[in-house]
Design a protein that fits this description.
Rossmann fold; 7 helices
């Protein structure tokens, strides 16, 4: 079920809340971003890395990850013009930072600077309570707890409003919606 936008989204709005969904691999980030966008009748920003890596003819390099970061920002900026109350971002530069530091031991300064200045009104981090789903693009299934703790530390360091989202299926979606409604009470659909 792929919803890039709900067909009833009438007009673009510059008055919206931006919510990033970040965290370890295989935690349902993409599914959650899609479902939340559909629920709130808005658009979402898909993760660029997947399509980029699927089209590579060789193993990815640090230069590729940097290009993925640039493309992710371009997509996010484009979708802002189509947002309706919320924009859900399936990843942000925190994911790129952790990926770079884990794979290469460093992260380009421009990514670190952009990460500090790019604002998100809320960050949702899906928990690692879902079973690992094997995928040729995913790495490190044995390090899920390690990455979870790393993300939590980074989010605290960034002083971000964030919420850990757990549960299976509709329960996970409802927990994410509840977190959003706590932060933005006007968003409640009665």
């Amino acid at each position: 079920m792929l919803y890039l936008e709900n067909q009833h989204n009438s007009s673009p709005s510059l008055n919206f809340k931006k919510i990033a969904i970040v965290g370890p691999e295989s935690t349902g980030k993409s599914d959650l971003a899609q479902a939340l966008a559909y629920h709130y009748n808005t658009v979402w920003v898909p993760e660029v890395a997947r399509s980029y890596l699927e089209n590579l003819k060789a193993p990815y390099s640090q230069r590729d990850v940097e290009e993925i970061a640039r493309l992710q920002l371009v997509e996010e900026d484009k979708m802002e013009m189509r947002a309706n109350n919320f924009l859900f971002c399936d990843t942000n530069l925190l994911v790129i930072k952790i990926w770079m530091q884990n794979a290469y031991g460093n992260c380009p300064e421009w990514i670190l600077n952009e990460l500090k200045t790019r604002h998100y009104d809320l960050i949702l981090m899906p928990d690692i309570d879902l079973p690992w789903a094997p995928d040729p693009l995913r790495e490190h299934p044995e390090k899920r707890e390690f990455f979870k703790e790393w993300y939590l530390e980074e989010l605290k360091t960034l002083d971000s409003d964030f919420h850990l989202v757990s549960g299976f299926g509709i329960e996970r979606l409802n927990n994410a919606i509840s977190a959003i409604e706590v932060h933005f009470p006007w968003s409640s659909k009665n």
